[in-house]
Design brief:
- Helix content of chain A is 48%, strand content 17%.
- Chain A has 348 residues and is α/β, with parallel strands linked by helices.
- In chain A, strands 2-1-3-4-5-11 form a 6-stranded parallel sheet, with helices on both faces. A 6-stranded mixed sheet of chain A has the order 7-6-8-9-10-12, with helices on both faces.
- In chain A, helix 4 packs parallel to helix 5 and helix 6 (165-180) packs across helix 7.
- In chain B, a hairpin with a 2-residue loop joins strand 1 (177-178) and strand 2.
- With 334 residues, chain B is mainly alpha-helical.
- In chain B, helix 3 runs parallel beside helix 14.
- Classes of the chains: A alpha/beta (348), B mainly alpha (334).
- At the A-B interface, helix 1, strand 2, helix 4 and helix 5 of A face helix 3, helix 4, helix 8, helix 14 and helix 15 of B.
Amino acid sequence: MIRSTTKAVAALAIGALVLTACSSDKKKDTASTASSATSAAVAASSAAASQPATADLSKVKVSYVSGMKALPFYVSVNCGATARAKELGIQYEYNGPADYDATQQIPIVNAVGAKKPDALIVTATDTKALIPPLKAVKDQGVKLVEVDGTVEDGSLSVSKVLSDNKRGGALAAKAINDLTGGKGSVVVISTKPGISSTDERGEGFKEAIKAYPGIKFLGIEYNGGSNATAQQIVTGLIAKNSDLSGVFGAGNVGSEGTAAALRAANASGRVKVVQYDASPGQVEQLQSKVLDALIAQDPYQEGIDSVNQAVAAATGQPTKDVLTDLHIITRETLADGSGKKFQYKVSC
Amino acid sequence: MTEAATPLPRARALVTIARERSGQGLIFVVLLGLFLLFSVMRPSQFPTAFNLRSLGLSASVIALLAVGQTFVIIGGGIDLSVGSVLVFSGVVAAKAINGLGAATSLGAIVLVGTVVGLGAGASWGAVNGFLAVRGGIPDFIVTLGTFGMAYGLAAVITGGSDITTPLKLTTKLGNGNAFGVPWLLLIALVAAIVMQVVLTATRFGRYTYAVGSNREAGRRVGVKVDRQRISLYMISGGLAGLGGFLALALYNNTTIGAHGNDNLVVIAAVVIGGTSLFGGTGSVLGTIAGVLVPVVLQNGFVIVGVPTFWQPVAIGAVLIAAVYIDGRRRTAAR
């Protein structure tokens, strides 16, 4: 009995070992194919980048922990970061929680912290809950770069790479005004309170919408990161406000739920929907008239900038905060080809 | 006085049941094996004080929930409401703490938070137990219902936004140490040891096995089955409530949106730890191992460098393998 038990445990251990070994190899493969696929894009960006590439950077280790590993936005950040890391010749690794959730992200931040990379690029999923773990990682001597989401304690990171969320919210208000002809009630549907990026978008929208007196602002609703909840909220809003003319989806989840609610209420087309972000699904929805405008960030560039700042910090050079640009995508800019390049990626 | 007529055989039978059915699983060997494996692969990264501390912190709140769930499942029930009860209790505790005023000492904050959290959680446990046992509603449905209710009420109380708690609670308790060990880990360990002793060395523990393995037989030997079952839900709720207060300390706010999957994580940990979903067998110590295995795997896979999308695949596979091996050994032992 004892012997068979030992064997079984040994088999399990070997299994885990093989699994880790195989998957490590697999990762290298995907990394190299990914970078060759995007090398054209990289060539363009690297010419503009200002990193000195003369020093030997092959020992520099940079890790990125995103807010949600499979979300096209963070996949695009990772693609930009992977491409830039390859170009600089540094060691780079990507991790993230399955859901946008601080309790899932913290153990991953801790595990990456235990590896003591030279720099950790992180998208904080909560402005407060991530402070203690990030502080602990920083105390290990790891330089922190925040991208997309930040914590309240601004002193932890050497650089923040962000898109101008307030401006994004203001752009959305402008788009809503253009689309609705400046009439009716509009609502913002956000993910959860306490997330810096979506909070600022809501705030930017709230301030900018005041400039359009014909529009009544109904406030900000939260869908908790769930399409089902988004659907319920929008269904309720349509029932309550017959003059609902616009919805601004500020979070990265929920547009499918909003669309489903509008379809069910036969209000598609009448209610204009402006959605933050530009994942392939959202671009498709824009084309099929489910959405009417997208506010696209530039996550690929954020990935490049993050790695640049991380490497600068790791090699003792000055770092700075970076604000990346935003773009309104409409069916018109998709048709003339100028909008397509801002679509996020699902794989590198 | 039929009870007095057969005290010895009854006690003896219950002791035998308790002893036989708390048999420790191979899961400890699996846990140790994973620990050694990762330590050998990454000796300068995995077995460090920093990492072990992080592992302990990651596991401690879930461990409390899992200990309570172990009692409910051994007693033949299930409690799906734990994550929401944790959130609700955390919210109520946060309200109470913030109502104390900024000058309140840490000791008073901890006392109030613990009492309010435990009380709120145990109250939900009482509701669960009463409806399931006296109301005759399947506990799967009752606790699914209270899962939604507790979460909803938490959102009603807060208006949907997380409440922030005093920073000193997080720096001193949530991330603070006692004798070099994180407070939260220490609290979870003490709770686990106490509850393991309760389960194996007290009449309450023996009755718990008894109502889980054969309710009617338990009733006939004089176990107050209904009261026993309601108590089990109250233990689960109370520990979830304590977890709610400790989660405040750990995360510095109420993390309302983050505990929807806690029930599945917790039930998985209990089953991985060797407790039968059909009741009557199991142990708290096994559950602790069941909590730690996925936590160690996740941590180890990140450190070893398993690509992020492969991690859940690998974790799922190892969990199934671990429980399979454990089950084989148990069958062989019989």
